[in-house]
Amino acid sequence: MKESSAKSPVNYLALGLGALLALMPSVGLFSKLGDPGHWPLHLGFAVLGMAWLLKSGSGDSTASYKLSWPALLWLGLALWAWVAPWATDLFSVAEWKYSAGRFAGYAGFLLLGGRWSKDASQDSAKFTTFILGFGTMLSLHYVVTFLAKGADALEDPYLVPGLMGHKNFTASAIALTLPVVVLGRMRQQGPSWWADAALWLGVLAILLAQTRSIWLGGALALGVGVALGWRPAKSVRYGLLGGIAVAGLLALSGPVQKRLMDPANLQIRQIFWDHSFQMHAERPLTGVGPGQWRIYFPKYGLEGMNPSVAEGVTSEVRPHNDFIWVLSEMGYVGLALFLAFFITVVVYAVRDYRKDPTDLGHATWIAILLLTGIYAFFEFPLERAAFWAPFMVMVGLRSRGGLTVPKPVYLGLAVVLLGLSGRIAWAAIQADQANQVVLEQNSRKDARGIVQSATDAVSSWNELDRFSNPLIYFAGMGSLFGEAQAMGPNPTFTSANFKQAEGYFNEALALHPYHVVTLYQKANLHRYRREFAQAQSAYEQLLAISPRHPGGQMHYAATLNATGQYEAAARVLIAAFLTPEYYSNPDYQRGVIQALRGMPSTTKHQGLQRFIALRNQANDPALFEAFQAFKQQRWQQEQAG
Asked: How far apart are CA 440 and CA 443, in angstroms?
């Protein structure tokens, strides 16, 4: 492999900027956001990209630039995202703007890399040094934090989220920097001791984070790099051998083995992917629209999801596969452009390597593409600027061919795209700040504060919080709380009550028609009013989406009891395998007794037949305990089966 013999001067400004950008999520303005490593990084990269673009273009006398084929394909993808309102129906305009804005911003980074690819200056070396600072800070922070947590972190690595707010996001950002650090070291574009330290820390951080897709992608990328002729320096070899030793020690740990071999994540991903294909089947050409996956996902059922998702406490917002994500949201057109972009980039990489197999940069780039492809198949780097923005700069640096355009058009387009990315990122940050106020008021059960903060926060830039709850839903809850509190401890509600809350809930369902929590609260509202037919219909709609929703099952049974459908209520309660918290709930206990005492003696349900004679002999507590013992027996039989 060819290496540079001339040592480049260290650009400490680029090094410092990389480290500072990595620290951006910890800044007070952003650290209290729900996801501090998301939009703040988009903003930071956009601002830095614009500054770098304007500076690097100011002294260039080139009359024209080329929009490379990857750039043209990605611009087509971004344009397709922006025309979505005219191609498909959208529920959330805000989520569409955020998604389309990401595509546009990444196009700006690609053009920035293309600008550097034809420049004889040291801008590309500055980028490598910037990545060195960025990766070092991410790795150093993660390793130090992990060691401070000690055995707890080894048992549960999610306790150490890193600067990106989640250990997988942090690990992926570090993984992307390592091949760049290796390349910069061999080309002497920075201090070798610093590069060695960054490499060792990065490998250690990735191993400690225990992100399987990164382990797999990193191992394959390393293998491909060696197969293509990369021969690491002695100090780098020591670092890699140390990493292999640490991996071996981790693999000997029982908790780590269990976590790495646990198939649960893959099983859940199968649900994500199946739902995504159902979305695509509804709208094969256009998809459901950029940013709309999170809204459509519950429509196809939450069976098999963890309890917090089934109850609507949290939600899934992407399918953990970027290719399927693009297919479901942007249809065949979007996927064709996305795949064509990747295929074109890979073709260029292979051609460059064949042309000059001795150039280290070609082998490194192929390894990066392999890492990106594998990670994109199991996660969602497309959402994260910490990964995708540097990746797109590298695509631009290595792209060729395309359409020739005047320099002002090229630079102007790049600045506009990055500016748009920064504008959208800032709007998302402000929305997240407003949403934190809403969530705080909601946790306090401050009825007036909830309504005021939620209605103030709603705009075309802010419709859903990061858990996919429509903001206007919180206004409905605040109104519901306020009216119930004002009527005292034993209120009697009629259809005249909760009109404002009902209006807010209807608005929320217009924005997110499959929102579990809104459906649940609207069903409860009808039950409070004794509108049992409407309540039954609403509970059935809820349970069609989330069959194991505990509150929905319990109160659906109460509604059936209220309309004399006692056997149906008993059947629901048998199937409702709830938690001890619900089993001790007076509403649940009362519902069981009412259903068992009221159901007809002619019931055909074999399990319920045993309670016909028992109910004439046992008092209510004994009858309830017998029912619970029966449920436990059935649950054990199901587990054994």
From this structure: 5
DSSP string for 593-614: HHHHHHS-TT---HHHHHHHHH
Q: Report the 10 Å Cβ neighbour count for 85.
A: 14
How remote is the C-alpha of 207 from its chain's centroid?
22
pLDDT digits over 541-576, tens only? 999 999 989 999 999 999 999 999 999 999 999 888
- Residue 611, both tokens: 């309670």
Give the tokens for residue 28: 């007070």
Sole residue written with tokens 């219909």: 537
Q: What SS3 state is found at 404? A: strand
Q: In this structure, what are the phi and psi dihedrals at residue 331, rounded to the nearest 5 degrees?
A: 70, -165
For helices 322-355 and 69-82, angle between their N-to-C axes, nearest 10 degrees:
170
Distant-in-sequence, close-in-space partners of 447: CB < 8 Å, separation ≥ 6: 478, 479, 481, 482, 485
Tokens encoding 56 = 């690097």
Rounded to 5°, angle at Cα 53 from 50 and 55: 110
Structure tokens at 468: 């996919």
CA distance 27 to 20: 10
Q: Answer for the pair 533, 559: CB distance below 8 angstroms, yes or no.
A: no
Strand partners, 66: 404
| Residue of 107, 15, 92, 115 lying closest to 468 (CA atoms) | 92
Both tokens of residue 360? Answer: 């280290």
Q: Which residues does 96 contact at the CB level (< 8 Å), separation at least 6?
A: 81, 84, 85, 90, 289, 290, 291, 292
Q: How far apart are CA 490 and CA 383, in angstroms?
A: 49
Closest C-alpha among 133, 180, 109 to residue 14:
133
Structure tokens at 2: 């060819």
Residue 249 predicted with pLDDT over 80: no
pLDDT for residue 2: 46
Burial label, 552 (beta-carbon count in 10 A; 0-12, 13-18, 19+) = buried
Return d(Cα 335, Cα 287) in angstroms, integer.
Answer: 10
* Residue 162 pLDDT level (bands cut at 50, 70, 90): very high
